[in-house]
Amino acid sequence: MRDEIAPAYEAKLDEIARGLIEAFAEHDQSTVPTLPAAAGLFTYPGGPGIPASGTLINGLAGTISINVNVDPSAGGQALRLRDGAISNPGNPAYTYNTAGGASFGDRIQQLITELSATRSFDPAAGLVASATLGNYATSAASGLEAQRQASEANSTYLQVVSDRASSVLAKETGVNLDEEMAHMLDLERSYQASARLMSSIDSLIGTLLDALR
């Protein structure tokens, strides 16, 4: 668990985290884009840049976080999820809702599309190299469940083997009450037969002695 299963699943979680950062990244909305993509709703210590596509970053799942610029509890504004400029509120190039429309929904629709888009994943994580984020996460969870079921089946099998071995060992070396009771009854019958024999011999000797007198 420590040396194989946990590290393997951690790699898959790292790729899911990288996929989330990539899917929610913001892009330069200028007529002629020149700025690089930047971490939007999800960020990490390496932000504001986003991780390289299809490249595993060990430990990323443990450091991914919600961008403070969209977190009201940290002084951010939740409406930036609709409007953009989460990555850099001071840079209008990352603003999607340039007109400030209250019913603007294009950015939300883009995020939905990104979540269902096929993207690259690092094969080093042990899964496919290309999938949607949802399918990749499902495959990761399914793989872990398959390992759990296999481990449970193996544990059950080993328990049966252990119980059978213990039963055989107890039979060979331990005390079986049924068998010991049968032996005791045999000994009791043998004792009774011996007692009757001794009594008969004693009676015979007495008769012989009386005849010699």
| Rg, Å, rounded | 40 Å
Report strand %. Answer: under 5%
Query: In total, how many beta strands?
Result: 4
Low confidence ranges? none
Distance between the termini: 94 Å
Helix vs. strand class: mainly alpha
Strand order of the largest sheet: 1-2
What are the secondary-structure elements, in order, as H or E? HEEHHEEHH
Count of domain modules: 2
Largest sheet: number of strands, sense, barrel closure: 2 strands, antiparallel
Average predicted local confidence, pLDDT: 88
Task: Work out the helix count.
Answer: 5
Helical proportion, percent range: 40-55%
Principal-axes geometry comes out as rod-shaped
Primary descriptors:
single chain, mainly alpha, two-stranded antiparallel ribbon, 52% helix, 213 residues
In short:
With 213 residues, the chain is mostly helical. The chain folds into two domains: 5-144, no CATH class; 180-213.
Question: How would you characterize this protein structure?
Answer:
There is one protein chain. This protein has 213 residues and is mostly helical. The protein folds into two domains: 5-144, no CATH class; 180-213. The chain contains five helices and four strands; from the N terminus they run αββααββαα. The chain has helices at residues 5-23, 80-83, 106-115, 133-173, 177-212, and strands at 42-43, 65-66, 118-120, 130-132. A two-stranded antiparallel ribbon has the order 1-2. Strands 3-4 form a two-stranded antiparallel ribbon. The mean pLDDT is 88.
Question: What's the SSE blueprint?
Answer:
Elements: H1 5-23, E1 42-43, E2 65-66, H2 80-83, H3 106-115, E3 118-120, E4 130-132, H4 133-173, H5 177-212
Antiparallel strand pairs: 1-2, 3-4
